[in-house]
Design brief:
Largest sheet: 7 strands, mixed
Structural class: mainly beta
Number of strands: 11
Low-confidence stretches: none
Radius of gyration: 14 Å
Order of helices and strands: EEEEEEEEEEE
Number of helices: 0
Length: 120
């Protein structure tokens, strides 16, 4: 119903920058939120940044001031600009979208993930 495809991952040195992109396709009429999660080896998947349809943006404390999320609704895309990358940012980054139908009903969608590796 909703498909997400990420791109832009790669290998960068600490202090460098990288931009991730996610293109959404399918039935997008009811998509409320889009954002990014990441999962490092041996760690749980964690929220990185999310942008809601109500213009609310939330960042993980660990990335505040370094990462910037943006949306291009006309292109059905969400981006993550990552600056001042640290080795601890190394993870698989997943594009995320959600349809919030009610307080009790929420559907989430995930991309396939893109690897970000930060070397020191």
């Amino acid at each position: 119903q909703v498909q997400l495809v990420e791109s832009g991952g790669g290998l960068v040195q600490a202090g460098g920058s990288l931009t991730l992109s996610c293109a959404a396709s399918g039935r997008l009429f009811s998509i409320n939120d889009m954002g990014w999660y990441r999962q490092a080896p041996g760690k749980q998947r964690e929220l990185v940044a999310v942008s809601s349809s109500g213009d609310s943006i939330k960042y993980a404390d660990s990335v505040k001031g370094r990462f910037t999320i943006s949306r291009d609704n006309a292109k059905n895309k969400v981006y993550l600009q990552m600056n001042s990358l640290k080795p601890e940012d190394t993870a698989v980054y997943y594009c995320y979208a959600a349809r919030v139908l009610s307080d009790a009903t929420k559907y989430t969608y995930w991309g396939q993930g893109t690897q970000v590796t930060v070397s020191s």
